[in-house]
Write a structure and sequence with these properties.
single chain, Nuclear Transport Factor 2, Chain: A, alpha+beta, 2 helices, 133 residues
């Protein structure tokens, strides 16, 4: 049997605990969405650099850059929740390295945007015929 002075105690306890619990749940959701967007940007950068590294067999490797950037932006927009996606590809023919950097914004459920930036690098592929006679 409960005492008369303890009436309403559970309602007060709930009103104190509920906001803290909801804040914890929404923080976990927002953190998960941020890491998902970051992973999306990394995957898009990998896809773009994978396409861009094929430019080594072309007579004009820099002509691949626009197509690789467009492919990367499309991939990041379709795959994840990234907005305002920008992809920048670079080809360094002296070192034989290609780089794709993806920058985008993720809109969080509680409001606000967080910028995400990821990049990926690879070696420029250059196929050469057999030089043996």
């Amino acid at each position: 049997m409960s005492r008369r002075g303890e009436r309403g105690t559970s309602a007060i306890e709930f009103s104190i605990i509920a906001p803290v619990f909801l804040l914890l749940v929404f923080t976990i959701i927002q953190t998960g969405l941020y890491f998902y967007a970051r992973n999306t940007a990394q995957s898009a950068a990998r896809e773009g650099v994978s396409y861009l590294r094929l430019a080594g067999n072309n007579s004009d490797p820099r002509s691949f850059r626009g197509g690789a950037e467009q492919l990367t932006e499309s991939y990041a927009t379709k795959l994840g929740r990234l907005k305002n996606v920008t992809a920048v590809g670079t080809i360094d023919e002296t070192t034989g390295r290609v780089t794709m950097t993806v920058v985008g914004d993720v809109v969080l459920p509680l409001g606000g945007n967080v910028s995400v930036s990821q990049s990926s690098q690879a070696t420029l592929e250059q196929f050469r015929g057999d030089l043996r006679n």
